[in-house]
């Protein structure tokens, strides 16, 4: 997995740091494999110019939320195979359902279970 590239999208620097720390505990992933984006607009620019194997995105963010980001990746960029995992606050089931309908590959609820995060990442990166 050392050649895999991940994008972590969250407007909270603390949440990005927590996710990055957890991801580096997955075998073969180092900080060098991870790119961070602070909202959907920043993430979209990075997806356009980079080549990622997996995206983890928050839903509620300023400028462009995670749902709009997924919509644009799937329709405007026509990127259908990039796994996108939604990270949402508990109780936002309709957001998760909307995200899945837009083409998200999976989701995690906050507070994020670190073992579940590792499991999802390993599953998605293992398929590619």
Question: How would you describe this protein?
Answer:
The protein has 128 residues and is of the alpha/beta class. The chain has a single domain (6-123), classed as Rossmann fold. The chain has helices at residues 13-23, 40-49, 66-74, 93-102, 114-126; strands at residues 6-9, 34-37, 54-58, 84-89, 106-110. A 5-stranded parallel β-sheet has the order 2-1-3-4-5, sandwiched between helices. α3 links the parallel β3 and β4. α2 runs parallel beside α3. The chain is globular, with a radius of gyration of 13 Å. The mean pLDDT is 91.
Distance between the termini: 10 Å
Overall number of domains = 1
**Alpha carbon gyration radius:** 13 Å
Question: What sort of overall outline do the alpha carbons produce when their principal axes are compared?
Answer: globular
Which labels suit this protein?
five-stranded parallel beta sheet, 5 strands, Rossmann fold, 41% helix, 128 residues, alpha/beta
């Amino acid at each position: 997995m050392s050649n895999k590239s991940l994008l972590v999208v969250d407007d909270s620097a603390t949440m990005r740091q927590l996710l990055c720390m957890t991801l580096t505990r997955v075998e073969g992933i180092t900080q060098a494999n991870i790119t961070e984006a602070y909202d959907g607009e920043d993430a979209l620019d990075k997806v356009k110019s980079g080549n990622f194997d997996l995206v983890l995105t928050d839903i509620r963010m300023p400028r462009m939320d995670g749902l709009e980001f997924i919509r644009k990746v799937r329709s405007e960029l026509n990127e259908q195979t990039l796994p996108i995992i939604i990270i949402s606050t508990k109780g936002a089931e309709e957001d998760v359902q909307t995200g899945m309908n837009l083409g998200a590959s999976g989701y995690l609820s906050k507070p994020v279970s670190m073992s579940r995060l590792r499991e999802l990442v390993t599953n998605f990166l293992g398929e590619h």
